[in-house]
UniProtKB/TrEMBL annotation:
InterPro entries: Multihaem_cyt_sf, Multiheme_Cytochr_ET, NapC/NirT_cyt_c_N, NapC/NirT_cytc_sf. GO terms for cellular component: cell envelope. The lineage of its organism: Bacteria, Bacillati, Bacillota, Bacilli, Bacillales. This is NapC/NirT family cytochrome c. Residues 9-155 form the NapC/NirT cytochrome c N-terminal domain.
Length: 386
């Protein structure tokens, strides 16, 4: 009897262990399948909120790299964290309670990049004449994605084109066009310069460029004898792309405008900011422009400068102003330095028509006053449509 009970007990234990093993193996098998399925790029593509990211990835040079190879760090612990976070993301997606645009909670670590890009045994493929010393950047703890953050998705989230209202507009054609834009995919020089300036790294052209990047027009004999001013008037933004980094003081008018400001302000920077104003604002210009012209050394210059100014007014205004509104890096001598205003201190009070204290010269003044007299000192702002 006791033997039968003992045998029965052993059979129960064996049955229990068998069932437990089957459950464990089955759970492990299901878990493996689930992890594998949810780790595929096709699974990520099922979420409509990821449509812009998926389409840009498919159009990128990393289209053959699975999402998890970059976005999940190696190790079981990191995998568990990612799956736990995925449950949270699934909840927000089902309840339509997620935040757009979608952003990465943390930077992609260098280890994810170097798993494929071993910098010790491969030649770095740079474009043009650019020289990039990756060893120095790694020593200074500059992350790969600091420069290469647009390589897989073209920085779509930063460009604010992934809101819910944008999902229907995204297709393969748009994604391919987006990823062909080098400013979206490749590192931009402004980021390099900002980082170098912040870290005290060299800012000279030769630091990163083998040729020095000197345009052919700059090597022509007449370039410094006035031609550079004419070229600047044709494309001032092209000049600013390099010379902005040579000025001690940044020119805020040339900082990239926000989208809403671009919409509100239809005028281009060139229309709002003249070449003469640029030359008086960029401190790099002082090297040449602070040198007194030969014409100014003539002993009869003070007697004849009025006639010369009438003939070459734009040339004079490259350094001078009618009135000294503010200090410039070139010269503080203006027309009003020697030719003060004829208006007396109480002219506004005696003016027959009431005018505010901050009244500026404008075309309405010419209804009564003589234009040739007033415009010797004053200028009328040229507004579109006038």
């Amino acid at each position: 009897m006791e033997k039968e009970q003992s045998l029965s007990k052993k059979l129960k234990i064996i049955k229990f262990m068998t069932v437990l093993i089957i459950i464990i193996v089955g759970a492990a098998f299901i878990l493996k399948i689930g992890v594998h399925a949810t780790s595929s790029s096709s699974f990520c593509a099922n979420c409509h909120s990821m449509k812009p990211q998926v389409l840009t990835w498919e159009a990128s040079s990393h289209s053959q790299v699975e999402c998890v190879q970059c976005h999940v760090q190696p190790g079981l612990e990191n995998l568990a964290k990612q799956k736990a976070g995925g449950i949270k993301q699934l909840y927000h997606t089902i309840t339509d309670n997620y935040i757009a645009p979608i952003r990465m909670p943390s930077y992609i670590p260098n280890e994810s990049c170097t798993a494929c890009h071993n910098m010790s045994n491969r030649d770095v493929s740079t474009s043009g004449d650019i020289v990039i010393d990756h060893d120095i950047h790694e020593t200074k703890e500059v992350a790969c994605v600091t420069c290469h953050d647009g390589v897989a998705h073209g920085k779509v989230s930063e460009k604010r084109v992934t809101y819910k209202s944008d999902y229907q507009r995204w297709n393969e054609t748009l994604a391919k066009r987006f990823m062909k834009d080098e400013k979206s995919v490749r590192p931009v020089m402004s980021k390099c310069m900002d980082c170098h300036e912040l870290r005290g790294a060299p800012l000279t052209c030769e630091t990163c460029h083998t040729t020095g990047m000197l345009p052919e027009t700059h090597e022509e004999d007449d370039f410094l004898k006035g031609k550079h001013g004419n070229l600047a008037s044709q494309d001032l933004m092209y000049c600013e792309s390099c010379h902005s980094y040579m000025s001690k003081n940044p020119i805020k008018e040339f900082r990239e405008q926000t989208n809403y400001m671009k919409y509100i302000n239809s005028d281009t920077i060139e229309k709002l900011f003249t070449v003469q104003q640029y030359a008086k604002t960029n401190t790099y210009c002082i090297t040449c422009h602070s040198v007194r012209p030969n014409s100014h050394n003539d002993r009869l210059f003070l007697m004849n400068h009025g006639r010369l100014a009438d003939e070459t007014k734009d040339t004079c205004f490259t350094c001078h102003e009618n009135q000294a509104f503010s200090e410039t890096p070139v010269t503080n001598i203006s027309c009003s330095s020697c030719h003060p205003s004829n208006h007396k201190s109480e002219w506004k009070r005696r003016h027959p028509v009431p005018i505010p204290d901050n009244q500026k010269f404008e075309k309405t003044c010419l209804n009564c006053h003589v234009e040739t007299t007033c415009t010797k000192c004053h200028t009328v702002s040229k507004r579109e449509g006038e």
